[in-house]
Specification:
This protein has 363 residues and is of the alpha/beta class. It has ten helices and 14 strands. The protein has two domains: 157 residues, Rossmann fold; 165 residues, no CATH class. Strands 1-6-5-4-2-3 form a six-stranded mixed beta sheet. Strands 7-14-13-10-8-9 form a six-stranded mixed beta sheet.
Length: 363
């Protein structure tokens, strides 16, 4: 199913969006510019318990899959069992897509809010390499601080699901989910842009100052609410290194005006005199193309990346890569560049993008 989700480009990330990101996985690093909350997230705000939410079998849920295996096959296995438990999962989401970049995060979370999702189920692997399930009420994330989560873990996914099914029977909850979909629905065709898409470069960047959001540190509020602070503090130390690398690449490879900025708020940046800002997505290549509303083919298994010095490299469509694009802040139009230049690291991807921009403006 192709879900073209639109959003207000000037809308700020809500408080519950911020808190929701903290339960997507135990430890993820994503290098998306300007994330309101960096995508290194931790189960630090959750107070685990074994009691199920009262309306788990009566309301809608969404599942976020953070498993390093075929996430669709995993979801199909899980959905068959959850259906029998009368848990109405309306969407399955690959965690890499929901943390791909701020535009993607905002778009997906606002979409879930509109769909009236009551519960969030996250499947991941814990530090003991066990499968772990957390079940949390979405509404809890309107509040700051610690939140309860039903948490279960087991060595094998079948064992975990059997245990949860047996515990649900014992819980004897109110049940009204009798028409649960037989097959899982995957939220993957997400158009995370609202304006028009141009597969060229914005030529006038050479005469205007480009806004480039810095990598953002995790806020003191989030760190103070965490039960384990050191991983978050360690992430913040890495942010300083990344921002230093970012500035070095730009000074070396972008011979035009730019400014590193602290915000991604399009309205504020436009008011401050910027016309354009640079952003990126970091997730599977095929997901990025869909987020940027670029053409994809089901039969494709590889994309060819045009790198620095016109070197070509083949990469799987499902390989996690970084891809840069420029957004016009007033119209929300985006410029992807005239080459597919996504690469394995944000540093290489940025160099690719800047190399092809320099060639473009010389034509």
């Amino acid at each position: 199913m192709n879900k073209k989700i639109e959003r207000n480009p000037f809308r700020q990330m809500k408080k519950w969006h911020l808190m929701l990101l903290m339960v997507i996985s135990t430890m993820i690093t994503s290098h998306a510019f300007g994330q309101e909350v960096p995508a290194f997230v931790y189960y630090s705000s959750l107070n685990p318990q074994t009691r199920f939410p009262n309306e788990l079998q009566a309301k809608r849920s969404v599942v976020i899959v953070n498993i390093e295996e075929d996430w669709k096959k995993f979801s199909a296995v899980v959905h068959e069992k959850l259906q029998l438990m009368s848990i109405d999962v309306v969407e399955y989401i690959d965690y890499r897509d929901i943390i791909a970049g701020e535009d993607a995060t905002k778009t997906i979370l606002e979409y879930l809010e509109k769909r009236g999702i009551t519960y969030l189920l996250t499947f991941s692997k814990n530090s003991f390499n066990q499968y772990e399930l957390n079940i949390t009420a979405m509404k809890n994330f309107l509040k700051a601080g610690s939140h309860t989560s039903a948490r279960y873990s087991a060595e094998e996914i079948d064992g975990l699901l059997k245990y949860v099914a047996n515990e649900l029977i014992k819980a004897d909850l109110k049940k009204s989910n009798f028409l649960v979909a037989e097959k899982p629905e995957f939220l993957e065709d997400v158009a995370a842009i609202k304006g028009r898409k141009f597969e060229v470069h914005a030529r006038d960047l050479a005469t205007l100052k480009l806004a480039i959001p810095k990598f953002r540190k995790i806020s003191e509020e989030v760190i103070n609410a965490a039960s384990s602070k050191e991983p978050l503090l360690a992430y913040n130390r890495k942010v300083d290194t990344w921002n230093s690398e970012l500035e070095t690449i730009l000074k070396t490879e972008f011979p035009y005006k730019f400014e590193l900025v602290e915000t991604t708020d399009a309205k504020k940046l436009y008011k401050d005199g910027f016309q354009y800002a640079l952003f990126n997505f970091e997730t599977k290549g095929v997901s990025i193309k869909k987020m940027l509303n670029m053409k994809t083919e089901d039969a494709e298994t590889e994309y060819i990346t045009a790198a620095v010095n016109d070197a070509l490299k083949r990469q799987s469509t499902t390989k996690v890569v970084s891809k840069f694009y420029v957004k016009h802040l007033y119209t929300n139009d985006i410029y992807t560049g005239d080459k597919w230049d996504a690469d394995e690291t944000w540093q290489q991807s940025l160099s690719n993008y800047l190399y092809h921009y320099r060639k473009f403006v010389k034509r």
